[in-house]
Amino acid sequence: MRRERDWSADTQRRKERSGLGVGYFRDRNVRQKFGISADEYAARFEAQGGTCAICGCRISLGIAQPTERAVLDHDHDSGQIRDFLCNRCNPLIGMSQERIDVLLRAAEYLRKHSNAKEVQYGCR
User: Fold this and answer.
1) Taking the domains of the chain in order of start, what are their residue ranges?
2) CA-CA 20 to 30 A from 11: which of 5, 63, 89, 109?
3) Is 32 exposed, middle or buried (0-12, 13-18, 19+ CB in 10 A)?
4) Residues 6+ apart with CB under 8 A from 56
């Protein structure tokens, strides 16, 4: 039987062996993707208060549960950086293809089919 390879452990070992550390790789990735430094990335996160810009849940830059991990949202056409979202809200924007009309219709659909008298806002 073939053994599955743990790619994340391999990646971590490679980073440790390189002597550059996780901070170097985070800085490089943030700079390549968003054109900002890791310090500016962290400052933006702190300025936002450590919560998702849509649902208000607490999010984390570090290792966390996948739903609590902060994602820096950006416009895929212009590359413009927006705000930090959680891993639940970020796909919501992507699946709607960033179309406001689709998101508004989805909200109306949920209101129409909701048994609750008031729609709750925030974390589950």
Assistant:
1) 10-48, 50-124
2) 89
3) exposed
4) 121, 122, 123
Output the six-digit token pair for 62.
Answer: 């570090």
Residue 1 CA to residue 43 CA, distance in Å, equals 48
- The secondary structure of 22-52 as a DSSP string is HHHHHHHHHHHHHSS-HHHHHHHHHHHTSB-
Tokens 């996780």 correspond to: 22
Topology (CATH) of 50-124: His-Me finger endonuclease fold (3.40.1800)
Please state the pTM of the whole predicted model.
0.70
Q: What is the mean pLDDT of residues 68-76?
A: 87
Q: What angle do CA 11, 79, 95 make, to 5 degrees?
A: 80
Secondary element (H or E) of residue 72: strand 71-74
Statement: residue 45 has pLDDT above 90: yes
